[in-house]
Specification:
287 residues; mainly beta; Thrombin, subunit H; tm1086 (SG structure) fold; 2 domains; 6-stranded mixed sheet; 18 strands; 11% helix
């Protein structure tokens, strides 16, 4: 078993309010149609981590609860320090004391996405406050100095069933492998310690050709030639492991969002296709 610096990490509180849904203006699809469909934010009652990302009548749908801060510096801190797998606790309103877990970090809107059981969702309302026990940034695997870990709770890293080869590479079970040319919105970001970037889906034949048509919220995926070490872009041989955090999108250049968690500028990360490469069981076993 590999070793990490987990005992040296700092756990710190970050907090946000459930953000009102956005997207009230009709949207233009990649085919030039104008539609009005639910979009990001709020409390999404019937979409969960583990559900399919395709086929929903919606745009950028975030499963569960979406929180942020209106103060930009506080919102940045929430989005950067909250990591997928972190514990979250309701600290105001009727559901005060209820516990959930972070399942995604969405860039642009700067939302942190949190899973709560159905009975808790029914008690929550817009502007209820949720505190996240943020821990994970700065996490390292001692045996793998060429691999950078981002946006990932240490306990979830162990759950991902990472294996180290004799060559010093890591092998990670993944639900799909994405060629870098399919990655769109979010490419060019100055850093990858928050938010996500999108798998483009306007060319559905390319999605089917790469066997990505059955992706689910929470799936672990490999992005080939995707460099997320000092921003988001293309670099031949680079590899990134990410987690699918929001649903498909209707706008051109967009699609399911992927938050990166294990990245390297070198081809030292290997994806192993698996039917069980999803974080849903990790989240649900907490309840």
């Amino acid at each position: 078993m590999w070793k990490t610096n987990q005992n040296q990490l700092v756990k710190i509180s970050v907090q946000g309010k459930i953000h009102h849904p956005l997207g009230g203006n009709p949207r233009i699809t990649s085919n030039g149609e104008v539609v009005a469909v639910p979009a990001i934010g709020g409390i999404t009652y019937n979409v969960k981590v583990g559900d399919p990302v395709f086929g929903l009548v919606g745009d950028h749908i975030e499963p569960g609860v979406s929180i942020k801060n209106m103060d930009p510096s506080e919102s940045d801190a929430l989005n950067v320090f909250a990591c997928i797998g972190n514990k979250a606790r309701v600290v105001s309103g009727k559901a005060e004391g209820a516990v959930g877990y972070v399942t995604g970090i969405h860039g642009g809107c700067e939302h942190v996405i949190i899973y709560f059981p159905d009975e808790i969702l029914e008690q929550l309302k817009i502007n209820d406050e949720i505190l996240v026990e943020a821990c994970g940034q700065g996490l390292k695997i001692d045996e793998c100095p060429r691999i950078l870990i981002q946006n990932l709770d240490p306990a979830l890293l162990e759950y991902l069933d990472v294996k180290i080869t004799e060559a010093g590479h890591i092998q990670v079970p993944v639900a799909g492998m994405i060629p870098s040319y399919l990655m769109g919105s979010g490419t060019g970001a100055c850093h990858s310690y928050s938010g996500d970037y999108d798998l483009m889906t306007a060319d559905w034949e390319a999605i089917v050709e790469n066997r990505l048509e059955h992706l689910k919220f929470g799936d672990v995926v490999l992005i080939e030639d995707g460099d997320n070490t000092f921003g988001r872009g293309y670099f031949k041989g680079a590899r990134s492991i990410g987690i699918v955090i929001h649903g498909d999108c209707i706008a051109h250049g967009h699609g399911p969002g992927i938050t990166t968690v294990l990245v390297s500028k070198e081809p030292v990360i290997e994806g192993v296709l698996s039917h069980n490469a999803n974080i849903a069981d990790f989240i649900l076993e907490k309840f």
